[in-house]
Amino acid sequence: MSSPGFYVQAAKILDKLALKKTTIKAVTLADDVKEKKKMYAIINETLKYKPIISEIIEKSQILKNEKKLSKSLAIVLVYDLLFGHAKNFKNAPAFQKIMNKNKARLNAELVKIKIRKKAVNNEDLLPKEIKNPFILPRYVRVNLLKSTVDKVIEYFQKNNGYELLPPVEGKELAHFKPKTFRKDFHLNDLLVFPANTDFHDHPLYLNGTLILQDKASCFPAHVLSPPPGSVVIDGCAAPGNKTSHVASLMGNKGHIFAFDLDKRRLGLLKRLTTKAGCSCIEPLNENFLEADPNDPKYADVEYILLDPSCSGSGIVSRLDQILNQKSQEENENETILDIKDTSNKLVQERLKSLSDFQLLTIQHAFKFPKVKRISYSTCSIHQIENEDVVKRALESTNEFRLSAHCIPQWKRRGLEGSVEHGRCYFIYV
To answer: Can you give the residue ranges of the SAM-dependent MTase RsmB/NOP-type domain (predicted)?
Structure first.
């Protein structure tokens, strides 16, 4: 049974997520959340049913009858009453009284929706993309500052009873048995587990040996590949997974200037990289575009990592689908901007603005006197943010070319013809 404070905190988390300035994992696994697993579960499940719950709340008029309830608090309470497990709210007597008083009306509205939608059970009310999402396997990066891949593999085999399977590519990764894992086919510090594997209480995660990081975000550091002793700039560093990955590959030998203009996000980077044991990172609460390339402290910078703001259109996540659900009322009163719809004029303007900013970051990186390798990455599916930015950047300089040797075992490359020799040079995740 959940306490009143638990429900109030869950409601505040829903409010934060509505602003779309954070992620489900970030707010539910934050330091001030005591029951992290439980909170993560209720937020995910509440968001799945949120459009249905919003309709029930509107039709039942519970907010008019219960003036002390906020919309978000009502959503959490209605979820737990109708879809969850807290049928009587024993540890929250004030909420128990409110929900018991409105229980019959709320149930009646749920039944009406089920009849209208011809739903046999609650899950039938969910859209297909939520009920049957495309789920990626769980990727886990081994932090080489804390251990080795072989030692981590041995730990899972001896202490957790896992079986190591041979590395595979593509669709074969969909076939995972419980208690099995693999080395990644392409990246030597990455392990692959079944999608539902939870590491948040695992001792190797808690001590910083394991970093929960998607495969796509592990490519940039490997592409950059600065050797130990290098001086590196991460121009768009927070929240810091890529920064800590570079430090891991360098063995903490050298120096990394980590730029981010957002003080809160830079604080997150400091916490994450400290936990990971990184001692070669210098966080800078500055705009990379305003950094003077001729400043003596950057005189030895040879490697620059750039992961600038982008449309995020290439992110495949069940959690994103949940967050982007709209109730009928919201759909009627809100213009929804689908960043994947390039026929939309507003989307075109947004992508043009992003690509211009991305180009500026690369061109600024070109100005550092000793820089010899730049890794540029986005999580976008759009050519305008990827190949087109690279093409424009290369057209603006005679000193740089695309590398022909980036992770040769990765076969998928950029769009043929969009950049000279694009199929040979471009890493496309």
So the answer is: 128-429
